[in-house]
Design a protein that fits this description.
Subcellular location: Cytoplasm; Nucleus
CATH class of the largest domain: Alpha Beta
Strand order of the largest sheet: 1-2-5-6-7-8-9
GO molecular function: hydrolase activity
Distance between the termini: 64 Å
Pfam family, one: EDS1_EP
Shape: elongated
Organism: Abeliophyllum distichum
Keywords: Cytoplasm, Hydrolase, Nucleus, Plant defense
Radius of gyration: 30 Å
Structural class: alpha/beta
Length: about 625
């Protein structure tokens, strides 16, 4: 099947809707009317919220490149970004831009207005020009984080114009994981230096550039401000242009982590030129195109382009009415090649430009990466179905053990198994399933799968079922082989990373109301996959109490036992355990007997445990 290049079509489609034009109109109004914080306009069922380019909220430095951890610096505000996996860099954002947003967020008028708009609007579009675009992005991220996943009735979008970069690659990845990438559209002028500024090392001219743009925006409001407009010398423009271009070139070529800018794009980027526009959502290709398009510019055009969005938007909104013809001299072998050539033409890059070959390769790479991820996803779906028989064999083994005359149940039958064909087969299936899921996690880690892979129902549900079915076997094997004596107890020292990842997938899923309804019978699988690990730890605490002479440590052990006993009782009362838990000869029932016997021998009984002397809350 032939590939199809759609970047120009995506840009044309966006331009054909009222969103782009209405967003820019309100941005222009916010810039020229000296709006202090934000301005709101309702068009039909869509409400637009625009933030001005001139931001005067005191103390913030939007010229620096300092970043802060979003979960720490804005604790409780962006709830979706509070967690990150061990070993991964936390979500970082530009410190000055975050400070500007938080100053606005902490005003009662902002939060009251946002609450009102969410309740009254079907669609909410945050927009802004320059620094105002970054505030719009943070506002959209805050609202997306705040809205309950189960009852989102308001569609939230963000359209920025010439906005600076906001955060690191972890932010970009987190947005993709939440499936919010399609909610953000960043319009960038062909040579506009502001969206590219933070890819370069700090320059002494950046504060001057910031003052220049602030004064230019103010000059639009009154003749008085026009007379005070700050000017940039040609020398300053030239040095700034080459500094940013060099920084972008290094980042587009994949420099080392030490040299790489801490900022990275997210969402879709719509690149506008005098000849049209194209839209891309591959971050690596976006950085490459930011460099290649700037390389066709000049020190003057990179400064002036930041103030040309009125022209760009007007031209883009007319583009969809006209048929763009391909006029290059070379022959076109396929619709895909024609699409690439047309996209580059819209990006203002012609076949005779020195960067044409690099730009063409960049567009092809972006297309191929997306196709490869989707293809891998499809192949994994086939592989998952091939492993279904292995899972079914383990389910059959569990049913056999739960109904066995020895009344040990699934966990203890596997833990105390003798050499048998049945046990060996189940153990081999355990290994093969672990290899499959480890492969899935590695592919996701190395960006070989779609970023929202972990939110696809078949993998969320499949990994959860695997975890509930197989982790009890992992725990049984861990204690059967004596690994707890060498490494420590399973939950803290022996649990595989895959199970921790699956915990997060399950926790982050969208929960339906039916999942909260009470059970009428015991679960097929115990809903806490670590339940047997907790049983083993509780039994170990009972053994240690007998030999522990220090009263403080003994009380801590007794407290741990009591906490587990209460937890297990609640699980059983809610029928969230499988029937193997309450089997007559299961490890859990052994714990119940050992705990009852221990309490009967402890004299004097500590005050906090007297409620258990008469068997209170004990499972019969």
């Amino acid at each position: 099947m032939e590939a199809f290049e759609s970047s120009e079509m995506l840009a044309t489609f966006l331009a054909s809707t009222p969103l782009l034009e209405e967003s820019w109109k309100l941005c222009h109004h916010a810039n020229t009317a000296l709006v202090q914080n934000f301005v709101v306009n309702r068009v039909g069922e869509v409400t637009y919220v625009a933030f001005p380019a001139v931001q005067n909220i005191g103390g913030a430095n939007s010229c620096s490149r300092d970043s802060v951890a979003l979960g720490t610096a804005a604790e409780g505000v962006f709830t979706a970004f509070n967690r990150h996996d061990e070993g991964e860099e936390p979500v970082m954002v530009h410190a000055g831009l975050l400070q500007l947003f938080l100053a606005l967020y902490n005003t009662q008028i902002f939060r009251d207005k946002m609450s009102e708009l969410v309740n009254e609007s079907k669609s909410l579009v945050f927009t802004g020009h320059s620094v105002g675009g970054a505030i719009a992005s943070l506002s959209a991220l805050w609202l997306l984080s705040s809205l309950p996943k189960t009852s989102i009735s308001t569609a939230v979008f963000c359209i920025t114009f010439g906005s600076p970069m906001l955060g690191n690659e972890s932010l970009s990845r987190a947005i993709l994981h939440e499936r919010w990438g399609g909610n953000f559209y960043h319009v960038v002028g062909q040579h506009d230096i502001v969206p590219r500024l933070l890819f370069a090392p700090s320059s002494p001219f950046i504060p001057q550039l910031h003052s220049f743009y602030q004064s230019r925006h103010l000059s639009l409001t009154t003749p008085y401000h026009a007379q005070l407009a700050v000017q940039l010398s040609n020398e300053n423009k030239t040095e700034l242009f080459h500094t940013v271009l060099a920084g972008l070139e290094g980042n587009s070529r994949g420099v080392s982590d030490l040299e790489r800018s801490p900022f990275w794009p997210f969402g879709s980027y719509m690149f506008c030129t005098d000849r049209g526009s194209i839209c891309m959502d591959n971050a690596t290709a976006i950085v490459k195109l930011l460099y290649l398009m700037l390389a066709t510019g000049s020190p003057t055009s990179c400064i002036e382009d930041h103030l040309k969005y009125n022209e760009y938007v007007g031209r883009s909104c007319l583009q969809y009415l006209m048929r763009t013809s391909f006029t290059e001299g070379s022959s076109i072998e396929s619709s895909y090649e024609a699409g690439i050539a047309l996209a580059l033409q819209s990006a203002g890059i012609n076949s005779h430009d020195p960067v044409y070959g690099l730009a063409k390769d960049s567009l092809k790479m972006a297309n191929q990466v997306g196709c490869r991820r989707n293809l891998n996803n499809a192949k994994l779906a086939v592989d998952l179905s091939k492993f279904t028989p292995l899972r079914a064999q383990i389910e059959w083994y569990k049913a056999f053990c739960d109904d066995s005359d020895d009344q040990m149940g699934y966990y203890d039958s596997f833990k105390r198994r003798s050499a048998s064909k049945r046990g060996n087969k189940v153990n081999m299936n355990r290994f093969r399933l672990a290899l499959f899921w480890d492969k899935v996690i590695e592919m996701l880690k190395t960006n070989q799968l779609p970023y929202d892979f972990h939110m696809q129902a078949k993998y969320v549900n499949g990994s959860q079922f695997y975890k509930l079915l197989v982790e009890p076997l992992e725990i049984a094997e861990y204690y059967r082989s004596g690994m707890h004596k060498k490494k420590g107890h399973y939950i803290e020292h022996g649990r595989e990373k895959r199970f921790q990842i699956f915990d997060k997938w399950w926790k982050d899923r969208k929960v339906g109301e039916e999942e909260n309804s009470p059970r009428s019978k015991f679960a097929n699988l115990t809903q806490d996959s670590c339940f047997w690990g907790r049983v083993e730890e509780a039994r170990d605490c009972i053994y240690k109490v007998a030999s522990e002479m220090d009263m403080g440590r003994r009380l801590l052990l007794l407290e741990k036992i009591e906490m587990f006993e209460q937890y297990a009782s609640r699980m059983i009362d809610r029928k969230e355990v499988s029937k193997d838990v309450i089997a007559k000869n299961s490890s859990y029932n052994l714990f119940v007997g050992e705990w009852r016997e221990l309490k009967s021998h402890l004299q004097p009984w500590p005050l906090q445990f007297t409620s258990f002397q008469d068997g209170g809350n004990m499972v019969p």
